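Target chain:
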Amino acid sequence: MKLLLTNDDGIQAEGIAVLERWAKSRGHQVVVVAPKSNYSGQSGAITIDKSLTVTQRTPGHWAVGGTPADCVRIALAFLGYHPELVVSGINHGYNLGFDTYASGTVGAARMAVSRRIPALALSAEPDNWDHVAALLDLHGDALIEAAQVEAGQAVVSVNFPAEAGQRVAWGNLSDSRFEDQLEWAEFDGTHHIVGLSCRTLPLADADGGTDARLVADGFTTLTRLPLQPETETVRLARSS
């Protein structure tokens, strides 16, 4: 299968290296098109007011001076590479709850789905890549199948837990996991210059059946992220 790999942590991030090793071990054709540096928190932002740098680092590896969503656009429109599946990640840190939509990892996958290309967005805590690699080896083929079912309709977001993970569950988005905190502020006479950070809320505080709670309980957790809001008729049909 022809795969396009991208991320938001940058082309040199360990997560995408783990992903590439797995994909090649399965015999997939792989092209990596990823930001040249960290572009976390960019959601689905695209560059429309300036040129993008595109640099071939090694055969099959392209670094883009733009957002994760830009990387998908560059692969299609500039490189002429048309994958059967886009896999974004493996993100360095969970993408859970409504904050998922701020993720550049998810933004790249959404760009792919908007082009009718199946897409996965993979995330994990970056503490034990050997554990993450083992879970990817265990579940990867099934994750691809899940993404193919949702082709053109939704991103399949996957979070690998820090422990366990042999069991798989589908979850709903939890409430936002982060609270904004003011770190500092100053006034230069014209502008307020503000520094914000985020406080992470405990996973175990999330409600049962949500993505955050399932990850806390040791499940490899899948969440369906529709490209467009679903009608009540579609939701009822799926639940029947």
Summary: DSSP finds six helices and eleven strands in the chain.
